[in-house]
Design goal:
The complex is a heterodimer of chains A (68) and B (573).
Chain A: H1 10-21, H2 26-44, H3 47-58
Chain B: H1 39-43, E1 48-54, H2 58-69, E2 74-77, E3 94-96, H3 97-106, H4 109-115, E4 117-119, E5 121-126, E6 129-135, E7 150-152, H5 155-169, E8 172-175, E9 179-185, E10 190-196, E11 199-210, H6 218-222, E12 226-242, E13 250-256, E14 262-268, E15 274-279, H7 286-289, H8 292-303, E16 309-324, E17 328-329, E18 332-334, E19 340-341, H9 350-368, H10 378-402, H11 408-420, H12 424-427, E20 459-461, E21 467-469, H13 470-477, E22 481-486, H14 491-503, E23 506-512, E24 523-525, H15 530-534, E25 541-545, E26 551-555, H16 560-569
Parallel strand pairs in B: 1-2, 1-11, 2-8, 5-13, 11-18, 22-23, 23-24
Antiparallel strand pairs in B: 3-7, 4-7, 5-6, 9-10, 10-11, 12-15, 12-16, 13-14, 14-15, 16-19, 17-18, 20-21, 22-25, 25-26
Helix pairs in contact in B: 2-5, 2-9, 9-10
Classes of the chains: A mainly alpha (68), B alpha/beta (573).
Chain lengths: 68, 573
């Protein structure tokens, strides 16, 4: 799993993500997120990377990784 | 033509079972077998038997038939006097290529093929859309075997064929109306108490096989521990005949508009009977959902009010998933539903029971003949627990897709179904059952790193060019191991093979190409390389094939590695 920046346009992606959810109900947002996760997971493909991403997402309370 | 169903039949408490409890319908006429007073009751003596099988379902009968084929004496005790469950449905309906290959080895495949229905196409729908389909004949994994990918047939037909085959072969004493009511074991033997219409008697056994099914008492008697999970998913089967003939395909709906957007299965079996299996609301009342008027209304919603439906059998069920922590406790071996219980999705129940039996039979035969270490029997647990756990994992995933927890699980399913309509990749997430396979053994003490895979029953040519198949070689080898040597055999290698065959329970066969000269007397031709492909080897190589059609190991040179692999496969290392 990459921890360093890999996004070509981090701010642009973040904005697109928020815009996609604008005006949606909570249920619609949940469905959008679920669809997006499945689409992105298929782009990643690698089972080990996906496992690490799920673990990293669940470990939100711990200290961030990478250079301090 | 319609028929009148009996009035509301008392339904037993909601059964957490993979078994299909009888609810309503005419049922099937089943054969009945006579109770014969056993010698123990006449003489009063307590006799010791090498093998006692308890339970005459598909697993127990497959084991009994396999032992009979290998000439091993055994006693089978069954509490009933018929196959199937009296007045009840067919239970399993779908038999895999591996099971069919095993039945071929036992000599009942032709009867199954004649009675059953072959299919290879499966389609999955969500709403009105087809989201996924497969044709198993197009998949390389299936098309080399002499047996088709699947045959659908009512389970009791197979059980009946097995009984008749056992009677032909001899060696196994089938004892009907014999219920085991008590059990104990010590270091040296086990003792079972058997109730019969003519009285009760005791019987001793060196090896006991519990094939009694999901309601077994042996778990308690042996102190078995297990992992178990149960949910609120409820289903209702209608086995029907009708005037419309849907395609001979496996159709599954994740969300069927005609079943309140819940799942539906539709599949043909023998006698033009269709199994339509409807998912009910969670925790649905089994009495209500299996009432005739409710069932007919459900069928009419799917097939139209004008469809002329004859109800053969109706039954509602709940399933649980369960897996023992060990499939051997002392002298007792657990197989079929006593080893593990899975949801019915993917036909992983009965088929793995058949494979359990095929796995244990040759090991018992080899050990009882003194040709293998008693330790070989422990490998039954290594291999079949591995398979059971794989099957529990796979079927639990399907169950979770079909009955997602409310909240995010349901949201992800909606996302997957929605994406599947537009994007190919998402179709692979739609899980209406992953069809059973011959499980590969990944942690067996008797398989080397190169072994553990099933060898398909592929065709080859005998030296006179007549057609043969792997099962012919396995039948010929009996409970001995088969060494297939591909390519030329040097004089030194030929001598080593001869010595091996003299000192170990091994039969050696050379496999040559269409125009090659054979050096060994026992040889076959593999003109298209199918046999080599089935053994997962290339070029000059050897493959050590066990009587259950699994690879013990493969290698290149005929040297000490082969000898070592033979010792390993017999539990001698």
């Amino acid at each position: 799993m990459k921890s360093n920046l890999n996004l070509q346009d981090a701010d642009g992606f973040y904005e697109q993500l928020l815009d996609a959810h604008a005006g949606l109900s909570a249920a619609e947002s949940e469905l959008l997120n679920a669809r997006l996760i499945l689409l992105l997971a298929n782009q990643v493909g690698n089972a080990q990377v996906l496992r690490e991403c799920i673990t990293a997402a669940k470990a939100r309370e711990t200290a961030p990784s990478g250079p301090k | 033509m319609t028929q009148t169903l009996p009035g509301a039949t008392a339904y037993r408490a909601v059964a957490f079972t993979n078994g299909y409890e009888f609810a309503q319908g005419a049922g099937y006429p089943l054969p009945e077998y006579p109770f014969v007073e056993p010698p123990e009751l006449k003489s009063g003596a307590v006799l010791r038997h090498p093998v006692v099988i308890v339970g005459g379902g598909i697993s127990g009968l497959t084991l009994a038939c396999s032992l009979a084929r290998l000439g091993v004496a055994a006693v089978l005790l069954d509490e009933d006097n018929t196959v199937g469950v009296k007045g009840a449905s067919s239970r399993g309906i779908c038999y895999t290529q591996k099971s069919l290959e095993i039945f071929d080895k036992l000599g009942i495949y032709d009867r199954i093929a004649k009675k059953g229905v072959q299919w290879s196409v499966g389609r999955t729908f969500a709403g009105a859309d087809e989201v996924y389909s497969f044709d198993l004949r197009q998949q390389g994994a299936f098309n080399l075997s002499t047996q088709p990918p699947f045959i659908n047939i009512q389970q009791f037909y197979i059980e009946g064929f097995l009984v008749e085959r056992i009677l032909e072969l001899g060696h196994v004493d089938l004892r009907w109306k014999s219920r085991v009511t008590a059990f104990e074991q010590n270091e040296d033997f086990a003792t079972l108490t058997v109730d019969t219409p003519a009285g009760s008697y005791r019987i001793e056994a060196d090896h006991v096989i519990d094939a009694t099914g999901s309601h077994t008492s042996f778990h308690q008697w042996c102190g078995a521990t297990m992992q178990s999970r149960r949910g609120d998913d409820r289903w209702c089967i209608a086995d029907v005949r009708f005037s419309k003939r849907p395609p001979v395909e496996r159709h599954t709906w994740v969300e069927a508009p005609f079943n309140e957007n819940r799942a539906v299965w539709q599949h043909l079996m023998a006698d033009d009977v269709w199994r339509i299996d409807y998912q009910m609301a969670p925790d649905a009342d089994p009495d209500t959902v299996s009432r005739e008027d409710v069932v007919r209304e459900r069928l009419a919603r799917q097939f139209g009010a004008d469809a002329d439906v004859e109800i053969v059998w109706v039954g509602s069920y709940a399933y649980r998933s369960q897996c023992l922590d060990s499939l051997r406790i002392g002298r007792v071996f657990f197989m079929g539903d006593t080893a593990k219980i899975v949801s019915p999705f993917g036909a992983r129940g009965g088929n793995t029971g058949v494979a359990d039996a095929d796995n244990l039979a040759w090991k018992l035969a080899a050990v009882l003949r003194g040709r293998a270490s008693p330790k070989l029997l422990d490998s039954y647990n290594d291999e079949r627990l591995d398979a059971a756990q794989q099957n529990v994992r796979v079927t639990n995933r399907t169950a979770r897709f079909l009955r997602p927890a409310d909240g995010m699980e349901r949201t992800f399913r909606a996302a997957a179904i929605g994406l599947a309509r537009q994007h190919l990749f998402a179709r692979s997430l739609i899980n209406t059952g992953r069809m059973a396979v011959a499980n590969t053994y990944t942690r067996s003490s008797i398989c080397e790193g190169t072994g553990g895979q099933s060898v398909q029953n592929v065709a080859f040519r005998w030296p006179d060019n007549s057609p043969g198949a792997v099962n012919d070689l396995l039948r010929w080898a009996g409970s001995d191991l088969l060494v297939l040597v591909f390519g030329d055999v040097s004089p030194a290698a030929a001598q080593r093979l001869q010595q091996l065959a003299q000192h170990a329970p091994v039969r050696c066969v050379q496999v040559v190409g269409p125009d090659d000269r054979a050096q060994a007397l026992e040889h076959v031709r593999d003109p298209q390389g199918h046999l080599q492909g089935a053994c997962h080897v290339f070029g000059h190589a050897w493959a050590l094939v066990r009587p259950d059609g699994y690879l013990g190991a493969t290698g290149e040179a005929v040297d000490g590695d082969l000898v070592s692999a033979v010792e390993c496969t017999l539990g001698l290392k």
